[in-house]
Write a structure and sequence with these properties.
Helix content is 22%, strand content 39%. The protein is an alpha+beta fold. It is globular.
């Protein structure tokens, strides 16, 4: 079955009162699926479970078809946390949805 990586974005609930900035996470997971749309659906379902206790999945999922097959589902292969004073829409526009991406 084809393999895909899917990047999802999260906004974490403010866990420390001495840190006023918002905390965002970019997270990449691996999936086996019949096609890229199914891989995104699997990743978004997992993202809803991953974000809990006031944390929020921001609804951005970007997928890439891998050349090599992966044998596991939902394995996290990358995570980046970034603090920012930007709200979710401005954060996504600045870092992930600038209008210059080649998405197809």
């Amino acid at each position: 079955m084809p393999s895909f990586s899917v990047r999802c974005l999260f906004l974490w609930a403010n866990r420390a009162s001495d840190r006023p900035a918002k905390l965002y996470e970019e997270r990449i997971t691996l999936w086996q699926a019949a096609n890229i749309d199914e891989a995104i659906q699997l990743a978004e379902s997992e993202a809803a479970d991953y974000a809990s206790d006031g944390d929020k999945y921001l609804g951005l999922a970007q997928a890439y078809a891998l050349y090599d097959e992966v044998q596991s589902q939902g394995v996290e292969v990358f995570s980046l946390l970034r603090e920012s004073d930007l709200g979710p829409d401005a954060y996504l526009r600045l870092f992930f949805n600038t209008g210059t991406e080649r998405t197809q």
